[in-house]
Amino acid sequence: MEWEPIRKTPEQMAVQPNLINYDRVYAGFTWQSIEERLAGLPQSQGINIAYEAVDRHASGEKRNKLALRWLGKEGTARDFTYADLSAESSRFANVLHKLGIGKGDRVFVLAGRIPELYIAVLGTLKNISVLCPLFSAFGPEPIEQRLKIGDGKVLVTTERLFKQRKIAEMWPRLPALEFVLLTDAPSHVNEDVLSLPQLMAEASPDFTIPPTDPEDMALLHFTSGTTGRPKGAIHVHRAVYVHYMTAQYALDLHPDDVFWCTADPGWVTGTSYGISAPLCHGVTLIVDEAEFDADRWYRILEGQQVTVWYTAPTAIRRLMRLELEPLKQYDLSHLRFVASVGEPLNPEAVVWGVRLLKLPIHDNWWQTETGGIMIANYPAMEIRPGSMGKPLPGIEAAIVEKLEGGHVRVVTEPYVEGHLALRPGWPSMFRSYLHDEDRYARCFMDGWYISGDLAELDEDGYFWFIGRADDMIKTAGHMVGPFEVESALLEHPAVAEAGVIGVPDPMIGEVVKAFVALKPGYKPSEELRLELLGWGRTKLGSAVAPKLIDFQANLPKTRSGKIMRRLLKARELGLPEGDISTLEKSQEEEKVS
Ligand code: ATP
Ligand code: MG
């Protein structure tokens, strides 16, 4: 089925978007223009993300504005003004400084979404130490592995996680680790395991950010591990240019916005857009400590009067699965812009937004490696459901074909599949994979960064995601992208989620196989299987349609919500599961057929 393009209605555009004439802004864009809108450290001492995010506002008109509202699991809330965030993060920077932790030293954070985490992130950046956030649900192994690769010198965590994750046991194997700071220990445990509250109480709320070279390392972010072993991507302070610019154009932040990014800071979305970008714009940021819960989420959108909401396809699919009618049950009248990232956003989900939220969902594309949004659907632009949109101003994106000898050809014809590539040089581009320079070097060909994703362009310059290069299926001479098949299955009323892989076949190379999770009220049956097979053939044609369908209660996903097709495949073929450190454990899928 062809999806109709979506244009916003005048009511949906009541607030004038920041980006109205895309072509003109794209053509005239310079990074210089963004530099002029950033403050820069006083006395031209460089650029520091935390200064742009908090200190510049704390010393200006936004001093007493609500910067961060934290919603606790148990119903409590804590508010921080820009002045509060500035003072608290300065205390944390002083704590690090006093412990002898300085520029370039790695500070790891392992905590749920608690206020201390946000303060530690900003304080670490102020001290020009390097922040490496870990997902709090990680078990001991992935924690140790990342602390080791990242040469973690400080670990900020909670008493519970310190014990449960057996940090003391792994410590002898981590020679770089000097201190553990416990966010909730009333007093120091020993010389190396310290009480953060005690250290904070003794620290001054004044801290002068040292001169920061824009190329100083700021963040170490591990990728999601969807296709293999997670890689540690290095980001520098200059990345803030992209945080700022993309929040303006792709998320359309306006000064009075209340912004909610549902991503955990364990992933890059949760730092670039869950901390840096919104604070740089001086808006109010909502942080929810709790995990996904449809009613809670709608109540947050309503009660906090969220205006801009940045979430992920996995969350949207979960909301879709429940078939609630949010506008009948909640007052979402403040919500004006919804965006999504992390996985392909099925056209069905974009249209669900229009139907049930009266707002389309704006898909955008980027990666840990790119540090910020690269391709997006903008508020003023026609949305083509299933498309990722167009490159941000300042970002040159192309579809390229790999040729012999390390060369590439830029594909200019529409509807020709190729590698999604970016022209290096945007400020938030990763500077390397830590301790893996070779792998970094292999990402570049002929002056392009090759993303590892496949896509195509339409005749108007919209980018359409096809699949990860690693997930492509070769069947009877066709290359099939799982996204296309999954999206078609998702259009069936019984289907909540689908993950599609290729199963080796001696005759046709690979057979397309789909794993399907059903919506509540539907039960796996032979009849439904046949119906879905037929549905696939009608929608996709027999060359592309799945030949095999299995039902599963839940699909294996990364903790950031991405379907792990490589794991579906390994399990199907009885092969080793590989690195599953990022596998979401709470939803351990159980096979029901
Ligand atoms: P790993 O690199 O370790 O396998 P990962 O690629 O999932 O993990 P991330 O950097 O978190 O790690 O995710 C980026 C990837 O997510 C992109 O390369 C792309 O495959 C997918 N992705 C993100 N946004 C979109 C989108 N809007 N549409 C389609 N795919 C997307
Ligand atoms: Mg990747």
Provide structural commentary.
- The chain contains 19 helices and 27 strands.
- With 593 residues, it is of the alpha/beta class.
- It has 2 domains: 10-457, Rossmann fold, CATH 3.40.50.12780; 472-592, GMP Synthetase, Chain A, domain 3 (2-Layer Sandwich).
- The strands form 5 sheets. It has a 15-stranded mixed β-sheet that branches. Strands 4-3-5-6-7 form a 5-stranded parallel β-sheet, with helices on both faces. The protein has a 3-stranded mixed β-sheet with strand order 25-26-27, sandwiched between helices.
- A hairpin with a 3-residue loop joins strand 25 and strand 26.
- Helix 3 packs across helix 5 (115-126).
- The protein is globular and about 70 Å long.
- Bound molecules: adenosine-5'-triphosphate and magnesium ion (MG).
- The site of adenosine-5'-triphosphate has 26 residues, from strand 14, strand 21 and strand 22.
What secondary-structure arrangement, pairings included, does this model have?
Elements: H1 22-28, H2 31-37, H3 49-58, E1 66-71, E2 77-81, H4 82-98, E3 106-110, H5 115-126, E4 130-134, H6 140-149, E5 152-157, H7 159-164, H8 167-170, E6 179-182, E7 193-195, H9 196-202, E8 217-222, E9 232-236, H10 240-249, E10 258-261, H11 268-280, E11 284-288, H12 294-303, E12 308-311, H13 313-322, H14 326-329, E13 337-340, H15 347-357, E14 361-365, E15 375-376, E16 387-391, E17 397-402, E18 408-411, E19 418-422, H16 437-442, E20 444-445, E21 448-457, E22 463-468, E23 473-475, E24 478-480, H17 482-490, E25 495-505, E26 509-518, H18 526-540, E27 548-551, H19 565-573
The chain binds adenosine-5'-triphosphate and magnesium ion (MG).
